[in-house]
Amino acid sequence: MAMAVRHFAPWGTVAALAVCLALAFLLWESDNRLRKIVLSVVLVLVAFSAVMSRLNYFEWMFHPIDSAQFETEAASKLESGEMIMAVRLGDDARAYPIREMAYHHILNDVVAGMPVAVTY
Fold first, then answer.
1. Under a CB-based contact definition with an 8 Å cutoff, are residues 63 and 106 in contact?
2. Which pTM does this prediction carry?
3. DSSP letter at 65?
């Protein structure tokens, strides 16, 4: 059922916006200035909600890292007790700091010629 609702959600959003605009147009005719201000605020909120319902804002906050940059162990600024996630394939090994992974949640990398997605 959730997939069906998601499939028709864009049309439902457009229909709800159209109904709000029609009702606002009908109510706009009064001479009451406070009513016009309230209607304007409501219309801005409805338009903002309609736009935001179609955007994936989680992708803005938690975008994957596509090109990781690595340092040698000696050049690393990691503290001795800092937690890491490690991947080893053959002779190639990588370490990913948890503090960075906790923000981005996913990192795309290539280890020993094999693409990997590291996630936390």
1. no
2. 0.46
3. B
